[in-house]
Every structure is written in structure tokens, then in C-alpha cells.
């Protein structure tokens, strides 16, 4: 654990489990650390990153026009496999969301990862794989392609992607269907109105 903290504080990247797949984590407010993650993943710069958080407090700083039902969703589904997009505030560094008007938030459920986020502040954590390949679920295989330290816990992973819910527009929109369904969301917030994603 201390080694992982040292790596993060030095501006380097680490591989950590979420409840779905492994992520490649680094300190979100350190531009060089974020640049390193893009380079390690060979990820296009126009693909924005999410902020991984341990409490909802950072949402109030990095998002604006937060829907009144947001906290109910967060209380019910976080920590867990739900990424929520909200309108970005001016506090979001351009190197995280590529200058887009929205920013995503995620609170992974793995206890070690959540503890590191709690101690180190918001982290980016895209899937630990080369861009365009399947999300990594086997720690040793990931390290062969991305040779950075991390914490292995293969049995914890479900392998099912998180659901991405966009709340940055007037109507909610599921950008990626994961384990949490539209019905699950409406059961918690019945007033949610969804628009369909254009094919």
C-alpha cells in the first residue's frame, strides 16, 4: 500500500482493481501524471477521463448545475459500477476532460482502491489496457503490456463494465449499458426521463 501511495505521489501510474476491471490510476490534478497515463495506454487525447472519488464532496467543486436527484443516485449506487457525467465547472483541468462541457465521476467499490483515493484525492483511472483493446481483468497480463506496479485481486473483478449515465443534459442518457440498468436507476429516481442514444 505504501509503495502505491509513493508511486502516485511521485506522479506515476499504478494498476488498481475496481469492482469491474482493472484501472490505470494516477493523480488527476497532476498534468504530467495524466499525460503519462495517456502515453502508457496509447489513448487519443480527445478521449476525456473520469474523476475517481471517495466521497461526493469533489462533485460540488468540479461540477455545476447538479440535478437535485444526484445525491439520491450517489447514495444508492456508489461505491459501485456507475459513472455519472455532469456539467463541468471551471475547476476541472483541461487535461482531464479535454475541454469538454461535461466531466465524469466514478466511485469504485474495491476497498484498497477507495482507500487510496480517499488519501490521495481525485484520481483518473481508465481501464488498464492499451487503447482499443479489451479491458484488463488479469493482473499479470496487464503488467506485460503496461509495466507499472499495482495491486492484484483478480477474483474480485466481475468483468462487466460500469454503466455510464449522462446527466449533463436536460434528459438523462445511458451512454454505455453496464450492470446497472435504466430500470434500476428509475427505481431509485422515478422522475428520471431518458432520451435514446443516437445510433
Tell me what the structure shows.
It is a single chain. The protein is α+β, with helices and mostly antiparallel strands and 199 residues long. It has one domain: DHBP synthase (Alpha-Beta Complex), CATH 3.90.870. Helices cover 31% and strands 20% of the residues. The strands form 2 sheets. Strands 3, 4, 5, 6, 8 and 9 form a 6-stranded mixed β-sheet that branches. The protein has a 3-stranded antiparallel β-sheet with strand order 1-2-7, with helices on both faces. The longest helix is centred in the first third of the chain and has 11 residues, at 31-41. The mean pLDDT is 95.
Number of self-contained structural domains: 1
- Helix count, DSSP H or I runs of 4 or more residues: 8
Series of secondary-structure elements, N-terminal to C-terminal? HEEHEHEHEHEHEHEEH
Identify low-pLDDT runs: none
Oligomer: single chain
Overall geometry: globular
Rounded radius of gyration (Å): 16 Å
Task: Note the beta-strand portion.
Answer: 15-25%
What structural class should be given to the helix and strand makeup?
alpha+beta
Fold-level CATH name: DHBP synthase
- Helix % is 25-40%
What is the CATH architecture term?
Alpha-Beta Complex
The profile of the biggest β sheet is:
6 strands, mixed
Number of strands: 9
Which CATH class?
Answer: Alpha Beta
End-to-end CA span = 43 Å
